Q: What sequence folds into this?
């Protein structure tokens, strides 16, 4: 297990390095940052002054080295747009996104896994059909539409939940449901398929034959095996929620990291975009790493491979 | 994505479920929505409309321009005199204090002017301040501002973007500190700032009594950034917001039909226009270097119909490259009526009887651009349409030039033609015409202190631009304001909502 962990860790670090170089390089291809910062009214000489002031006229290797060295110490420089330290800005916005992401994935898992199990236990039954219906709806409905439908019902009609902002827990109810519902179908279908697979396996029959209770068979023997791909999927979904909840954050005016990233790209706010890309990829890398470990713990065969 | 989010169907759903609005008149708080995240409240370090709006409420300028009459009166200065073309003396108002208790005097003006005029300090919109060289204190309540060159629009700028900052506080906190805890002499003082997200202001009780802005009437302003229009509408219906603006025309019409809100429309100073590569930067054989082709395009586009069908409201067709209320904006220029037949004839005369093909660029309002390319197609001009991000299009224009593009310009709400026509026809990197004659005339107009002479030379330049069809001015933009019926407010053409002029009915 130690060798396996170290191997995975080494791989994760390499990916991080590659991502950091890519994110740095890609942004220089997206246009002249000096022109973007100088704004609508700047003359050519203003732009040159800005270029020199921000050091864009230095070799990019020097710029990358300096950026990486500072980033490791948690200093991502100053946002061109907000004129605030990027680390302060990102940590502020990230807390909203983290709450949303954790709530969203919890909501998705807590609804999808039981539904998936129930659907697998009684395939083609009424409950299976209901589960299918829910998952198709979740997949087909665009988040912005679903979000606005919820706003119409709960904020305008019944006035029990606020439509926007991030002041209290009430603000997170609708975004959690919208974000979680989007991730739910895939998790549920995967749980159902996995469960159907293992329920027909020999060891399940053996477990039943030796007299294990149905609950024990389901959760100790079957689900533990069926859940392995779900763990990997949930890790990816979680990464997606943290970086990709732009639409939900925009609809509910949550001002999280996803929305910040989206807006910063449009504003050519390089330091912020670079920091966010690095952080989002770190999330993916960390979650993938953790899910690998979790899977290895669930399935000892993986530790060898 | 935003286009999808603003889908009218979604809005209709919100509309269908709406009940009566509950304004926050009872708590004396006006709840306001901004659409865009404001970068920095420090007015010298942002270039956003939201920043201008906050600036007018938090700070004062030395001079004030009445948005209705257009007259200049003293604000932090009581009166001013030109010593010569480049020296302006101002007597300052006594008894004014900043929100933090710091008394206002000449030191504040001197410190502010010297800070912003220094290019090294990186004020975002250099043009707002780079005409000033320095300021000196003559007496405790008298200052002298030195200009780099004669700049007759100085008074307009002093009445607009040049806010006066408290010298001691600003020296201590700088632009970042000012952005987080702004301090001014204006009618509203800032209670809290969450950068880009949330701004809370309250009435400044000690606001100086003789201010031409008048006294603030509403107690509290709560401004939140809500990017999605549908969410803003939902907040408006559920009573979470009292005032929104920049509402899309169709939605404004529906909201007006409901009868629960006041819907107001006013023109803004932003104008839309087509640029032509008259200087031939994209190739010497470029058809747009030919006057007849430019005139043909000008006759081919039905601007009136575009205004009536798409922009709506108080938008107008514009024929001169400036906003009509700007000083020096000559209106008596050659106009190009919609006449597709004439356009075809002109094209044939120019040597393109079978039409031609042009690359056409734009960065916003895709629907307006598409309407235009439809009209062009009808007279035989085939366009390759390219929609770019603003910064990308700007860079392309500067570096390589583009044959034809749809652009807009808001003049920073400055009521002087130097802020519009002189921006683009004086050989800058965005001057696609490079006409020496126009540049010479504009130089005279921009630097002369005689108003009549200025008018004469702006007129010459604008007439030549229209005669030669160097660029085609299209229309002025407009803004829709939707607010609670408890609020007394009339928008102004400069698209700067002044919260201190709003009151409860």
A:
């Amino acid at each position: 297990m130690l060798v396996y962990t170290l191997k995975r860790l080494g791989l994760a670090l390499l990916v991080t390095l590659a991502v950091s170089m890519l994110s740095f390089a890609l942004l220089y291809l997206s246009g002249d940052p000096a022109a973007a910062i100088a704004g609508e009214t700047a003359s050519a000489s203003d732009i040159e002054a800005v270029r020199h002031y921000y050091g864009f006229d230095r070799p990019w290797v020097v710029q990358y080295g300096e950026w990486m060295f500072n980033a490791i110490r948690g200093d991502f420089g100053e946002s061109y747009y907000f004129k605030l330290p990027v680390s302060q800005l990102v940590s502020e916005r990230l807390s909203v996104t983290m709450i949303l992401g954790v709530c969203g994935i919890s909501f998705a898992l807590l609804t999808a896994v039981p539904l998936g199990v129930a659907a697998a236990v009684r395939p083609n039954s009424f409950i299976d059909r209901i589960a299918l219906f829910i998952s198709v709806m979740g997949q087909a409905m665009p988040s912005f539409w679903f979000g606005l439908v919820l706003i119409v019902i709960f904020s305008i009609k019944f006035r029990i939940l606020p439509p926007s902002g991030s002041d209290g827990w009430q603000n997170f109810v609708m975004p959690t449901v919208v974000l979680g519902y989007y991730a739910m179908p895939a998790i549920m279908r995967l749980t159902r398929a996995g469960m159907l697979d293992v329920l027909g396996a020999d060891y399940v029959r053996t477990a039943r034959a030796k007299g294990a209770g149905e609950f024990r068979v389901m959760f100790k023997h079957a689900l533990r095996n069926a859940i392995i791909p779900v763990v990997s999927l949930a890790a990816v979904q979680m990464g997606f929620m943290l970086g990709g909840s732009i639409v939900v954050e925009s609809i509910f005016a949550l001002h999280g990291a996803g929305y910040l990233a989206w807006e910063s790209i449009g504003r050519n706010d390089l330091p912020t975009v670079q920091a966010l890309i690095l952080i989002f990829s770190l999330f993916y890398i960390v979650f993938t790493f953790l899910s690998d470990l979790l899977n290895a713990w669930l399935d000892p065969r993986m530790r060898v491979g | 994505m935003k286009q999808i989010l603003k889908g009218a169907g979604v809005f209709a759903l919100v509309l269908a479920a709406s009940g009566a609005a509950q304004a926050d008149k009872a708590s004396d708080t006006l709840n306001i929505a901004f659409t865009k995240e404001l970068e920095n409240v420090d007015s010298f370090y942002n270039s956003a409309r939201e920043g201008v709006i906050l600036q007018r409420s938090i700070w004062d300028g030395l001079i004030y321009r009445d948005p209705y009459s257009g007259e200049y009166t003293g604000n932090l200065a009581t009166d001013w005199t030109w010593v010569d073309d480049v020296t302006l003396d101002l007597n300052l108002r006594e008894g004014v204090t900043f929100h933090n208790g710091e008394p206002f005097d000449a030191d504040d003006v001197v410190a502010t002017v010297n800070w912003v005029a220094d290019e090294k300090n990186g004020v975002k919109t250099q043009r707002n301040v780079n005409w000033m060289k320095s300021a000196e204190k003559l007496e405790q309540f008298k200052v002298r501002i030195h200009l780099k060159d004669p700049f007759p629009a100085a008074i307009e700028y002093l009445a607009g973007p040049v806010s006066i900052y408290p010298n001691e506080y600003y020296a201590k906190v700088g632009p970042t500190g000012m952005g987080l805890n702004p301090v001014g002499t204006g009618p509203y003082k800032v209670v809290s700032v969450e950068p880009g997200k949330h701004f809370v202001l309250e009435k400044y009780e000690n606001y100086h009594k003789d201010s031409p802005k008048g006294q603030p009437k509403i107690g509290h302003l709560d401004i939140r950034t809500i990017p999605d229009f549908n969410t803003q509408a939902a907040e408006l219906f559920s009573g979470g917001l009292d005032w929104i603006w920049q509402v899309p025309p169709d939605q404004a019409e529906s909201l007006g039909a409901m009868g629960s809100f006041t819907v107001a429309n006013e023109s803004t100073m932003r104008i839309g226009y087509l640029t032509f590569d008259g200087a031939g930067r994209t190739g010497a054989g470029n058809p747009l270097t030919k006057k007849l082709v430019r005139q043909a395009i000008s006759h081919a586009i039905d601007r009136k119909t575009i205004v009536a069908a798409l922009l709506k409201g108080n938008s107008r067709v514009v024929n001169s490259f400036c906003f009509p209320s700007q000083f020096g904006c000559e209106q008596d220029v050659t106009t190009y009526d919609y006449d597709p037949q004439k356009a075809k004839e002109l094209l044939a005369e120019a040597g393109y009887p079978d039409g031609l093909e042009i690359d056409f660029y734009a960065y916003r309002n895709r629907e307006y651009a598409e309407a235009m390319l439809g009209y062009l197609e009808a007279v035989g001009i085939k366009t390759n349409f390219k929609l770019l991000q603003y910064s990308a299009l700007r860079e392309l224009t500067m570096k390589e030039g583009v044959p034809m593009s749809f652009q807009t310009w808001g003049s920073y709400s400055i009521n002087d033609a130097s802020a519009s026509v002189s921006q683009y026809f004086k050989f800058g990197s965005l001057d696609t015409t490079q006409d020496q004659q126009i540049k010479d005339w504009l130089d005279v107009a921009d630097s002369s202190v005689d108003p009549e002479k200025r008018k004469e030379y702006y007129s010459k330049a604008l007439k030549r631009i229209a005669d030669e069809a160097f660029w085609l001015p299209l229309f002025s933009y407009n803004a829709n304001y939707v607010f609670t019926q408890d609020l007394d407010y009339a928008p102004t053409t400069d698209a700067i909502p002044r919260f201190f002029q709003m009151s409860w009915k």
